[in-house]
Design goal:
heterodimer; A: Aldehyde Oxidoreductase, domain 4; eight-stranded mixed beta sheet; B: about 170 residues; alpha+beta; Ubiquitin-like (UB roll); DNA polymerase, domain 1
């Protein structure tokens, strides 16, 4: 009872493209025979790497002491110093004041930043070794909000910069100033788009080895491309381009953009392997991935619209502050520029002003995430469309319709340069509204409102770009700079089709699949060209830069496969067909152009009996070159390097056709909000996508459904949370919430009439990103409609929504302080009391005696006095699943013997650091007993804070209770002394933070 | 309970998909690492190593467990089943595998082994689940590619096929 929404579209009926051909990839994946990096054998002697990472969001590195690494099994360590000596900073697409080596050199700038890497004989030993490295830091103030980062007194991340804004570009397209001046109305909205990613199930994996014969490196990894990063790596490693051989295996466990930014690790691990003189393997763990791999840039966007009384939007003004975290890694800040050409989405808006600010803050550096700039941009544009409709008292869908590009306008050059290839946006809306039963939805809204419920309807439309123009990133340079460096444009895709000596067909391509099913689709495409079945064709998509055809655009990103790789495969197969037709023409004595390829034969169109088996023709090219037509090369192997002429460089006026083919998506939904809990429930949801020719509806539908699920994640759950001080707070899948099967609702998938792209060889466009754009905007618009509330901020945590329900006033639209700024750093507070069978004097003596204290501090072996009433010691502490050795320092101050004192302390270790203060009062009781009253407040950072959010409270209480029980034992031997903790509510801020994370 | 000395590799023996296997493990070695790198059974995947994502789910004495939350030495004497043991002896797909194949219920396939093992246990105990029950049962396994829709359909298809198989054999 398979249940598919997308129909098969096979034209003509004997073809395979358009068929729901089952995935050949499944045969290995369903039986445990997948070949992911960590499944592959490595050479004997391969070492395993582990990273020491910064527990601070911002600090100077005072010293790194690796002297304890003499343990057996440890072969090499690298620190930032090695990187600075052996490599050059990694290039970004514009001049900037950031030296980025993939590892901290003099300063750490985000929690989780690599500080050292160790290679040891196994992973367990490597992690032991990492913990033996001692780093002294001098903490600096951190900044996590992109607007606060621009304040004159904000901590400066990169000393060579004069500001945390490292690039600003201003664009005028059309005459926006005049349009705003002449408009009937104007509206302004400020959007804050959060940090998230799609966190693939397989983390980063790298095996690096130094190669003596080239002086370079051989790297196996799950890097996804684009291979424009290859020269970035070779420049950093100071090797020739052909001395860095990058290989990727058959399988990769998802990427969603994330595995682009594996490249800095490749550089670091090459250096480590060089130093260790052995291959080094590294498998990232989940905490490393969540804290330090990659995130979409969070963004503040101020959007202004000029519009007429009739509901025609005449101009947009967009000011973006794109928060890229601590460093820029190529191709960042590409998401800002990839969407530049479609800044006006699918609307016929002819005046546009855009200002792009690229900002750095003390957070994980940004990277690619499915949607690549689209979610941030379209959230702003679509929220604005809803606002304009609301201001005009117009149906938002009517406003959308009035502004969309009309079918007769295609191909349509958008004002910022995108050449929208084809579409019929109005028809998609009509078909989606009918199939998704929009009328019923509106009735449900009326009924809900009459019943006194909170119910809203939302809409969102998107133009979905596919196959990126490799030149668009140059738009962040000025025209003068571009003229100096020369033009950049196009996007080369490479596929090789060969026929061997017995007529078997082999296909090799540069699409670096991450699970999408490319092998199956390429087999369908090539089979149709050669008159074979997909099962006849082998497709190898594991990549090897030393052997494969590849170019800068190779890889798997930005909807590249369907327009690009498929076109290259089609072209290569067509060349094979032509060559084979030329050979068969001599065998069949018929003109080559009259030959057809069908059912494994090559035959004359007008006399099907005049035929030769496909394999015979293939064989001849190998077995008997002398029999080939004169001048023909032997063998059959055609490599197509395909790039579309429509991908032109940025114009002098900064217009750029950012992508080749543009699909269209349209969503609408109804949501009901529980006024008691703030829970937003999706009552009805429909989504429609025109992505041109459907190559395999099973896979196209899978892309939409997958994108929908991550759209739901971004809307409701997923956020990389940081404390105001820069502490990273979402280091597990229990903190960074990923939707499970229960959180992803059913929706209606509408398949509208497709409009094939005229610029791709099969008319196919990308389909994988649409719901990243539309779903968050559509649901936010519905929430705004239900609540009459403007500043809808993702993710839609119930606590947040509840606060909006309760707030009757509309918040200011501009320059609002972020919600984050209200939240404190993770803090644990508590107080309690304990009875001890000893006099206050005896208890006092214990507190001041390091030997006695060492006995009662849980996990402490030894405490030594380092001054008057100052102590240091090593303590083994654990919080939930993690456990580590901390260096503890304690100072006793405000001494009032034998009544009260203040205890100020800090603990630092590989798991993080904490600092805090406690007070105790000793009250004499009857019978030589003492009542010890205590209170404490502890702040945490590092791994403990990142993974332990939910556990910290209980763990701290347990520790202190154990301490107090031990004190009671030590003082009087009376184990029965009862520890009675009275627990004050945690600070409101901590509660808000926990609530916000849910 | 036996106390095992750290830093020493101890003999660990259990049955893996019906076959007796053995290898050596330090007490701290995770069962996932033992299965994958000591025994070469790389079909079981590691997604989070903190018990949330479910990719490493195996059957231990018939019950679904997270192999990333177990030590190899704890599996001594157990009967372990993994994805490598699901197919029929002739290599043909089991009803669950076949249903995943026909429904396009996997993309990258990284979470799939854990899902197949969780659902093997689930369908054995719940041969006739509703769609909603399947979603709840599936909620211990994260998938980032598919959006779960096709997975749920595949599990319902598999349940039906298994019931028919059961009916035919009894």
């Amino acid at each position: 009872m398979t249940d598919f929404a997308m129909p098969e579209q096979v034209q003509p009926p004997n073809k395979h493209v358009g068929r729901r051909t089952l995935r050949r990839e499944n045969l290995a994946l369903l039986t445990g025979k997948g070949e992911f990096v960590d499944d592959l054998p490595v050479k004997p002697g391969t070492l395993h790497a582990a990273f020491l990472r910064s527990p601070h969001p911002h600090a100077e590195i005072v010293s790194i002491d690796c002297s304890a690494l003499k343990m057996s099994g440890v072969h090499a360590v690298v620190t930032g110093k090695d990187l600075a000596e052996r490599t050059d900073p990694m290039l970004v697409g514009f001049q900037n004041p950031i030296d980025y080596y993939g590892m901290a050199t003099d300063r750490v700038r985000y929690m989780g930043e690599p500080v050292a890497a160790v290679a040891a004989t196994d992973r367990y030993l490597a992690e032991d070794a990492v913990e033996a490295i001692k780093v002294e830091y001098r903490p600096l103030a951190a900044v996590v909000d992109p607007l606060q980062a621009l304040a004159p007194d904000a901590p400066l991340l990169h000393p060579r910069a004069d500001s945390n804004c490292v690039s600003t570009r201003h664009f005028i397209h059309g005459a926006p100033e005049e349009a705003f001046a002449q408009a009937d109305h104007g509206a302004t909205l400020t959007i804050r788009y959060p940090r998230n990613s799609i966190t693939p199930m397989e983390t980063y994996a790298v095996v690096a080895e130094a190669v003596a014969e080239t002086g370079g490196f051989d790297v196996l990894s799950n890097f996804q491309g684009p291979f424009s990063l290859h020269p970035v790596m070779t420049r950093a490693l100071r090797v020739r381009s052909n001395a860095l051989r990058l290989r990727s295996p058959k399988n990769s466990g998802g990427s969603f953009g994330s595995k682009l930014t594996i490249f800095p690790y490749i550089v670091v691990l090459c250096v480590l392997a060089g130093k260790a003189k052995r291959p080094v393997k590294w498998i990232e763990d989940r905490l490393e991935h969540l804290s330090a791999a990659s995130s979409a840039a969070n963004r503040v966007t101020k959007i202004e619209a000029a519009y007429t009384e009739a509901g025609k939007v005449t101009a947009l003004r967009l000011t973006h502050w794109d928060d890229n975290g601590a460093y820029l890694r190529a191709p960042m800040p590409a998401p800002l520029y990839r969407m530049h050409g479609v800044s006006t989405n699918g609307y016929d808006i002819r005046n546009l002003e855009v200002t792009n600010h690229v900002v750095v803050t003390n957070k994980c550096p940004s990277g690619a995430v499915r949607g690549f700039g689209g979610p941030q941009l379209y959230f702003a544009v679509e929220r604005m469309m809803q606002k304009v409709a609301s201001e005009l008292g117009m149906d938002p869908l009517e406003l959308v319709r009035r502004n969309l590009i009309r079918p007769e306008q295609f191909p349509y050059q958008a004002i910022a340069g995108a050449l929208l290839d084809s579409g019929n946006y109005q028809r998609v809306i009509e078909e989606a509204s009918a199939a998704g039963d929009l009328d019923r939805l509106k009735q449900r809204k009326q009924a809900a409102l009459q019943a006194g419920k909170l119910y809203g309807v939302g809409y969102a439309a998107c133009v979905e770009p596919s196959q990126s123009n490799m030149g668009y990133i140059s738009t962040l340079k000025t025209g003068d700079e571009r003229r100096r460096t020369g033009p950049k444009d196009g996007a080369v895709a490479s596929v090789t089709v060969s026929v061997d000596a017995t007529g078997s067909v082999n296909v090799v391509g540069d699409s670096v699949p991450q699970g999408q099913g490319h092998q199956t689709v390429l087999a369908q495409v090539v089979a149709d060209q050669l008159g074979l079945t997909p099962d006849d064709i082998t497709v190898a998509l594991d990549t090897d830069t030393a052997k494969d055809g590849w170019s800068l655009a190779a890889g798997n990103y930005s909807n590249r496969f369907s327009p690009a790789s498929v076109s290259a495969a089609h072209l290569a197969a067509e060349r094979v067909r032509k060559k084979m037709a030329g050979i068969a023409a001599t065998m069949l004595n018929a003109p080559a152009e009259d030959l057809r390829f069908k059912n494994g034969k090559i035959l004359a169109a007008h006399n099907p009996d005049n035929a030769v088996p496909f394999y015979r023709v293939g064989g001849l090219a190998h077995w008997s070159p002398s029999s080939l037509p004169e001048g023909m090369d032997p063998g059959i192997r055609e490599t197509a390097m395909w790039s579309a002429p429509e991908l032109t460089p940025t114009s002098a006026k900064d217009e750029i056709n950012t992508s080749l083919a543009y699909g269209f998506g349209f969503d609408f939904c109804g949501v009901e909000i529980d006024s008691a809990t703030g829970v937003v429930r999706i009552d009805q949801y429909a989504t429609a996508h025109d992505c041109g020719t459907i190559l395999n509806p099973g896979m196209a539908e899978g892309q939409i459904r997958g994108s929908w699920a991550s759209g739901i994640g971004a809307t409701f759950y997923e956020e990389f949370a940081y404390g105001e001080d820069g502490s990273f707070l979402s280091g597990t899948f229990a903190d960074y919430l990923v939707p499970s099967a229960c959180e992803v609702p059913e929706f209606q998938l509408v398949h509208p009439t497709p409009t094939p792209s005229p610029y791709t060889r099969l008319g196919a466009k990308g389909i994988a990103e649409g719901n990243q754009y539309t779903t968050p905007a559509c649901i936010a618009n519905a929430v705004a409609d239900a609540l009459g509330f403007e500043d809808v901020l993702l993710p839609l945590a119930p606590a947040k929504v509840l606060a909006w329900i309760q707030s009757s006033e509309r918040p200011p639209a501009e320059g609002t302080a972020p919600a984050k700024a209200e939240e404190g750093k993770p803090r644990i507070e508590g107080s309690g009391e304990v009875q001890v069978s000893a006099t206050p004097e005896s208890v006092w003596d214990i507190f001041l005696d390091p030997q006695q204290m060492a006995k009662i501090i849980p996990g402490c072996d030894r405490l030594e006095a380092v001054g008057d009433n100052r102590f240091r010691g090593d303590v083994m502490l654990g919080v939930g699943p993690i456990k580590g050795l901390f260096e503890v320092r304690l100072d006793l101050t405000d001494l009032d013997k034998p009544r009260s004192a203040k205890l100020v302390g800090s603990a630092a270790g590989p798991l993080g650091s904490s600092s805090g203060a406690g007070f105790f009062n000793l009250k004499p009781m009857e019978g030589f007993a003492t009542l010890v009253e205590y209170s404490y407040s502890i702040q945490l950072s590092g791994k403990v804070a990142a993974v332990g959010g939910r556990l910290l409270h209980g763990a701290a209480r347990q520790l202190i209770e154990r301490f107090m029980a031990a004190l009671a034992r030590q003082a009087g031997g009376d184990v029965a002394a009862e520890v009675q903790s009275t627990w004050r509510a945690l600070g409101r801020r901590l509660l808000a933070w926990l609530g916000g994370a849910r | 309970m036996n106390l095992l000395e750290s830093n020493i590799r101890h003999l660990v023996r259990f049955t893996l998909n019906g076959a007796q296997v053995e290898g050596y493990a330090e007490p701290r070695l995770l069962l996932t690492d033992f299965l994958r790198h000591e025994l070469g059974a790389t079909g079981t995947h590691v997604g989070c190593e903190h018990g949330v994502c479910g990719a490493c789910t195996i059957l231990l004495d018939g019950r679904a467990v997270r192999s990333c939350l177990m030590l190899a030495v704890q599996a001594e004497g157990a009967a372990i089943e993994t994805i490598e043991g699901l197919a029929h002896e002739d290599g043909g797909f089991s009803p669950l595998q076949q249903a995943f194949h026909e429904n396009f219920a996997l993309q990258c396939g990284y979470c799939t082994p854990g899902i197949l093992m969780s659902m093997t246990e689930y369908l054995r105990d719940n041969p006739n689940p509703t769609k909603k029950e399947v979603r709840v049962a599936l909620s211990g396994n994260l998938c980032r590619c598919t959006g779960y829709h096709e997975i749920v359909n595949a599990i319902l298809d598999a349940a039906k096929a298994l019931r028919e198989e059961d009916g035919a054999s009894s």
